[in-house]
Amino acid sequence: MELMNQKLQNAACSLDRHGYCCINAAIPHTAVRELVGLLVPLAKRELRPPLRIDLRHISSPSTSPIYQLNRPSEINPHIKASAAFQEIRNMLEMMHLSCHFVSDALILKDGPHAPATPWHQDVAYDTGPSDPRGGLTVWVPLDAADRVTGGLRYLVDSHRDGLVRHLTAEATKVRYIADDTMPSSTVHETTSRPGDLCIHWRTTVHGSAEVRGSHSRLAWSLGFELRP
Ligand SMILES: O=C(O)CCC(=O)C(=O)O
How far is CA 63 from the centre of its chain? Predict the structure, then answer.
């Protein structure tokens, strides 16, 4: 318990300072297993092929698309009752982040060679007035994710400068920051595995690495709005 408190304090500091944090072994094994049991069958059933996000025209040439399923927790209400979901909420509270859950998505990168998720801010997808920090995203890997298997990558300190200009890919409505308007800062490539969490402000510029082998990488992304 002490160790977890310390981890969460460090995570809150990193989030405040750099715009993101990663917490390893944040969710206990039993809760991860329950989550995998809920999300993997849903991904298998729903993801191929209806919500195919073809990024091939804005990313490096690749042979596989990325698939996204919006609002899985509305399709299966057990997801919100899961121990992992409760753990995530408790952790946000312990980090003194007063917020409420808004929506979620399942993202599958299916190798070989699924493209990089382009640099973007989640706030570019939000509508309506929001906190200047733009709320929070909690990203939950359900497979190991690193620079070869589609790990999340962050532009350090990028939450400070507000909304950057985004372009929209016509066919898919995917929003992305073009190379020539990309803010300059250090890139941090994360390495994570099931049980870990990455948390970022919705103003933090981020993307994810391409999949270089024939792996598939599933992640669950949860959006939270800050309470005034
Ligand atoms: O999983 C990915 O490739 C990207 C996830 C992402 O951008 C997000 O959850 O905000």
Answer: 23
